[in-house]
Every structure is written in structure tokens, then in C-alpha cells.
Write a structure and sequence with these properties.
Shape: elongated
CATH topology of the largest domain: Spore Coat Polysaccharide Biosynthesis Protein SpsA, Chain A
CATH class of the largest domain: Alpha Beta
Number of strands: 19
Helix content: 25-40%
Radius of gyration: 24 Å
CATH architecture of the largest domain: Alpha-Beta Complex
Strand content: 25-35%
């Protein structure tokens, strides 16, 4: 089963009064659309960005510094929101039970938690949207602005995106609405028109849609005020160089006549990072969680152990924000392999590549590294509490 994200980025945003599409405006140093895309790093298998043809190259340029762990394609924006959704749906070939999440790119404060809960809701209910219970009183008025009645506030929700659906359900309903000339303000409304149940789950009050200029200021205030207490972890590891072993660093097999000795694949760089992550949260070290006398871990890829370490942090209410790894080795030269190392670490942790740093240095022939008796690695990371 796959999860597709349809990212709607084709609006003109005229009320924002900006010289460019609002999804290209920066918020705390990142374009709005990049912040929206990052929320789906650990969820999406594929993403379709629905945008006007003239803005697609600009969006691609904004993406160039970040290697997203899923393929991204573009679809042409339609004249209406529903037209854009249909174009996005038409560019993919999902199985009937695949999950489709449709998100407004202008909601750049969406969190992975909200997106993940919507995806889980699709599995349980078939159609699921996030919503925030109404906190104000609403009036239904006639065309002249006179109040006709006051709906029960306890039944009202402000609906957000992403909105999630089984692929077969949303594609069928969207196509039928197009044939019937039905126009709704959101995708859930299309399903409701055809009496298809839609489950509303708890949304996030911070998941605002950027529409007016003051929304940008509000988004900046939310981001700047949403910083959780930061924990810093430091890790160190060393392994001996021997013959007849593979040299694996950050999951990349490096061609060399010597390899690192260890119970697992002896990936000294990832071992240092795992110790940094666990140490930041006071959760012991890798020997505690993955002891070298346990047969389950004999020869295992440290990328799998890294994913498990991230899971351990998640279970204790923590999330890794960024990682910085330094490998100390006299030989071989590691510079050509560093981009792939960074991609491996980022993919294993569900992080954007721009939050992962991998560096290599020699010791100028000093110490055991300089004598090529072994390789050491240092890692530093920051961890925050989950909101």
C-alpha cells in the first residue's frame, strides 16, 4: 500500500498582495511550499505538486537544496480547486486501497503528526479530515445579512488539510462531481454530496492557511514560539581496521583493502550517531539496546539499528532535529561518498538532507587513526520533545 500526496500550489493568492505566489514566500527562512512538503517526509511514497506551468521551475529551484525521500512530479493547475485536484489525481496510478492525502501548500504549519493521523484515519474510516472544534458562535444569515438562526457550536468544526481518502473513493467521486457540475470548497464536500461518510479527527489550531498578509506574521510567531526544549547529544565510537571485512560508513560500502571489525557491520559513524541520540535523551547507549552478544544483531546493517534508535526516541516522546557526524580516518578518501552517506542517514531518520551533516578528516598520521589501525567517529545531534 502506498501513500500519495497531492500538494495544491496553483492558487494566485491575490488577497496576500505579494508580488509572487504566496507558496513561494519565505517563512522563517524557508519557502512556504518547502515547509509544507517537509511535513510528509516520513509519510509520502510519492508527491504531486499541482502548480501553474510558469511557477513549476521556481518551485523546482526552491527544492534543489533538499533531497526529499520520495519522487516529486508536477501536474498543471486547473481553473478551480477541484480541477487542480483532478489533474493531480490524473497524474498517478494508485491501487484502489492506496491512500491519497490532498493538502493546501499554503498550510505550511502542518505537522507530521497531523498528516500521520489523517493517513491512519483513512485506513480505519476510508475518508478522514482534520478539524478544530468551533470556539466562537456562528450565525447563518440570509442574502441581506440578517441572522436566521444560530447553529449548535458543539457540532461545528473548522476543517483543515491534509484531507485523506482511499484512492478509489476520491477518484470516483471527483470524476462524478466534474461530470455533474458539482463545485465544493474542499474534497470532503465532494464525498458528502454523494453521501459518502467522512470522519473528522482532531486537527491542530496552528495549522492555519496563509491567506492575508497578517497570516504570514502569525505563522512566523507560531514557528518562533514553538521551539521545544532542545537536548544535545554527543557520541563517539571506534573500530579496528582488519582484513577480510567490508568497510561500511553511513550505510555506504567503501572500496578499500581493510574493513572495520565488529559484531554488526561495524559502521562506526552510525554507532557514534546512535549513541549521541540516546545520550541526548538519557536512554543509555547502543550497548544497552543492541548488545554485541545478541545473535540478532550479528552482521546487521547499522542503518536498521539507526531506524530502531529513532523509534526508541519516538516511544519516549523525542524527535531528532539534526545530526552532525565527523569520521576520522587516514585512508581511504571519503569525500566522494559523503553525499550518499547523508542521503542514507536522512532517509533512515526521516529527515531532510539539509539537517544531516557528514564530514571526514585525517589525523595527519597521528594516533591509531593515522597509523591506520582503526577509524573513529564523533557525532553531535539535537533532539526536541514531540509536541
Amino acid at each position: 500500500m502506498k501513500t500519495y500526496v497531492i500538494m495544491l500550489a496553483g492558487g494566485k493568492g491575490e488577497r496576500m498582495g505579494a508580488p509572487v505566489n504566496k507558496i513561494l514566500l519565505p517563512v522563517c527562512g524557508k519557502p512556504v511550499i518547502i515547509r509544507s512538503m517537509e511535513a510528509f517526509v516520513t509519510i509520502a511514497d510519492e508527491m504531486v505538486i499541482v502548480a501553474r506551468a510558469d511557477e513549476q521551475p521556481v518551485i523546482l529551484s526552491a527544492m534543489k537544496e533538499i533531497a526529499f525521500p520520495f519522487p516529486v512530479r508536477f501536474a498543471e493547475a486547473g481553473k478551480t480547486r477541484q480541477g487542480s485536484v483532478l489533474n493531480g489525481l490524473g497524474s498517478i496510478s494508485p491501487d484502489p486501497d492506496d491512500i491519497i492525502l490532498i493538502h493546501d501548500a499554503a498550510r505550511c504549519l502542518v505537522t507530521p503528526d497531523v498528516a500521520g493521523r489523517v493517513a491512519d484515519g483513512v485506513l480505519k474510516y476510508g475518508a478522514c479530515v482534520p478539524g478544530v472544534p468551533a470556539s466562537s458562535t456562528f450565525k447563518v444569515c440570509d442574502p441581506d445579512g440578517f441572522a436566521e438562526y444560530t447553529p449548535d457550536r458543539s457540532l461545528l468544526y473548522e476543517i483543515q488539510t491534509p484531507q485523506g481518502f482511499r484512492a478509489e473513493t476520491v477518484i470516483s467521486a471527483s470524476r462524478k462531481a466534474a461530470r455533474d457540475g458539482i463545485d465544493c470548497t474542499d474534497d470532503a464536500g465532494v464525498l458528502e454530496h454523494y453521501h459518502i461518510p467522512v470522519k473528522v479527527i482532531r486537527g491542530d489550531p496552528a495549522n492555519i492557511k496563509l491567506t492575508e498578509p497578517e497570516d504570514l506574521a502569525r505563522a512566523r510567531n507560531i514557528l518562533e514560539g514553538a521551539v521545544s526544549p532542545v537536548r544535545i547529544g554527543m557520541g563517539y565510537d571506534v573500530h579496528r581496521l582488519v582484513k577480510d571485512r567490508k568497510l561500511i560508513l553511513c550505510g555506504v560500502e567503501i572500496p578499500f583493502e581493510l574493513g572495520l571489525l565488529g559484531h554488526s557491520d561495524a559502521d562506526v559513524a552510525l554507532h557514534a550517531l546512535m549513541d549521541a541520540m540516546l545520550g541526548a535523551c538519557a536512554l543509555g547507549d547502543i550497548g544497552t539496546h543492541f548488545p554485541d552478544h545478541d545473535e540478532r544483531f550479528e552482521g546487521i546493517s547499522s542503518l536498521l539499528l539507526l531506524k530502531e534508535t529513532a523509534h526508541i526516541l519516538d516511544e519516549h516522546g523525542y524527535v531528532l532535529y539534526n545530526a552532525d557526524i565527523t569520521v576520522a580516518a587516514q585512508k581511504p578518501k571519503l569525500l566522494p561518498f559523503i553525499p550518499l552517506m547523508k542521503e542514507n542517514v536522512a532517509a533512515a531518520l526521516g529527515l531532510p538532507v539539509d539537517r544531516v551533516s557528514v564530514k571526514a578528516t585525517t589525523t595527519e598520521h597521528l594516533g591509531f587513526e593515522g597509523r591506520m589501525e582503526g577509524i573513529s567517529s564523533y557525532a553531535v545531534c539535537t533532539v526536541t520533545e514531540k509536541k
